[in-house]
Amino acid sequence: MTAPGPEIAARPSPFRLAARGAAALLVIDMQRDFLEPGGFGAALGNDVRPLQRIVPEVRRLLGLFRAHDLPIIHTKEGHRPDLSDCPASKRRRGAPGMRIGDPGPMGRILVLGEPGNDFVSELAPEPGELVVPKPGKGAFYRTGLDAKLAARGISQLIIAGVTTEVCVQTTMREANDRGYECLLVEDATESYFPEFKAATLEMVRAQGGIVGWTAKVEEVIEVF
Ligand code: C5J
């Protein structure tokens, strides 16, 4: 059996890395649709600029995992062009003409394959990294992600991405219920609402880490 790895100085307690390769970096939805003007996030009335601030931090994590040849997964929220995987209740969000599937400056909003649905260029996946398109907020909903992680022997997730209280938190809760140990990287996740980000960080690590752990990028980097 391979020996467990070192401990990240996380909150509410140290996070011990399992055997080499068992911890994957899971980057949630770092897409133009959420980070750039003209995408889904902006169509819902959000100022997208705060999300752009974490791009360098997510890049540092990608660089770390790539340098050590460790598993990386990128999720991408989007719908099929015929919207058959988009519930009517979701499609009704936002102003008419600026809803999922409507044309925007970066192509059809939140539709797979459109320019706006792609990853921001700085964080584009590299060959060998797993890309998981997802129709919902949680990365485990209708994606087969659980089986893909199991096939790779992954039991821990180091999580980054957007938005903290929507797709990131939903995914973290789904993962926690499925037995994965999850660490959310505080300065590599962001929300359109600073108070929602702060509350999410508090609630995941409350009660002895009821949903998981949190740590800063630097604290993750220093144990590798
Ligand atoms: C949202 C996401 N906020 N990736 N998606 O609709 O958090």
Automatic annotation (TrEMBL):
| Domain of life assignment | Bacteria
What keywords are annotated for this sequence in UniProt?
A: Hydrolase
InterPro entries membership: Isochorismatase-like_dom (IPR000868), Isochorismatase-like_hydrls (IPR050272), Isochorismatase-like_sf (IPR036380)
Q: Where is this region: Disordered?
A: 76-100
Named from the GO MF annotations, one term is: hydrolase activity
Q: Name one Pfam family in it.
A: Isochorismatase
Q: Where is the Isochorismatase-like domain?
A: 23-212
User: Known PANTHER family for this protein?
Assistant: FAMILY HYDROLASE, PUTATIVE (AFU_ORTHOLOGUE AFUA_2G08700)-RELATED (PTHR43540:SF9), PEROXYUREIDOACRYLATE/UREIDOACRYLATE AMIDOHYDROLASE-RELATED (PTHR43540)
Q: Mind telling me what this protein is named?
A: Cysteine hydrolase
Protein's organism:
Sorangium cellulosum
